[in-house]
Sequence to fold (331 residues):
Amino acid sequence: MGSTIAISDQNSHCMIYHPELTLVALKAIILYNLLTYNNAKETIVARDIYLHDFGDMIEKATIRQWQVQEHESITQDQTLLTFETAKAIMEAPSPVSGKVLKLHCQPGEQVTHEMPLATIELEQ
Amino acid sequence: MTSFVIRKMGVTDYQAIWSQMRDLTLNRDASTPDEIWVLQHYPVFTLGEGADPQHVLNPSEILVVATDRGGEVTYHGPGQVVIYPLIDLKRYKIGLRSLVRLLEDAVIDWLHQYSIEAYNDPEAPGVYVAGQKICAIGLRTHRRCVYHGLALNVAMDLEPFSRIHPCGDASLTPTQVIDWAPEVTLLDAEFGVCKTVIEKLDGGHYA
Fold:
């Protein structure tokens, strides 16, 4: 049996050192630590966008149209999407600048204030 | 005290007015004064952005316009008072939902002055009297600036409403102010509702 290195994931890494650790395995551990250190420096800060970000106690709405795409860079106040609530259509301005990571709902979909509409990576 | 530019525009072409209010809203900045437009339209059916065109049953000679406001299909015609609050919501620190409530309350309060028992329905914005619709609301905001507005049936020919399912509801029938208070004139309604809207925006109770 050779040596074992078990790595659970980047955030909570876990290594098991065997007494007969080979040089190759040792190098792998050093490389791994180096990589996680670098990853730590590149931590992204992202924020979910909710209906309540648009300045009103809006409990539910129907998505009309996305005005941005995933991976697109956006600036604060740029229109993110249009949605309809209480016979009013809002061109909803982004509360933050950054990059769109994920759009969570589709045009025509009914959403509530508890559901994230989009996730945006914040500008550092 | 907030100041408003109030434009009383008479009977107007729908598409011309829509294009003007859109231009004003898309090009306004923090210093642009708020305006309230008070007018009527020549006969026209208008659809909200998400409206189902099947609710227009038989438009016949009346023009149908697909607009960018919220809400379903409605009818505009002479004798109906239309009020477009072209305002920047940031100035009043109110949200879109609160503005809808404010407009409903302005119409309700004014109708109460003539002892008309008007009320709203939180599930279907607008103003109602005895189960019939007297005022429709449809809005849009661009950077928290509002266009489109409310339409109050005052003294008009209601027949064209039978050619549509108003607000997408087949069972909904319209009513108008003179059926409940025959003494009311168009001028009373234009002046009165505009005044209550401004008082409520100024009052700051909707924040």
In short: Chain B has a mean pLDDT of 94. The helical segments of chain B are 14-27, 89-92, 96-112, 186-203. The beta strands of chain B are 4-12, 34-41, 44-47, 63-66, 73-76, 80-86, 118-120, 127-129, 132-142, 145-153. The interface with chain A takes residues 48-50, 68-71, 89, 94-100, 125-126, 137-144 of chain B (CB under 8 Å).
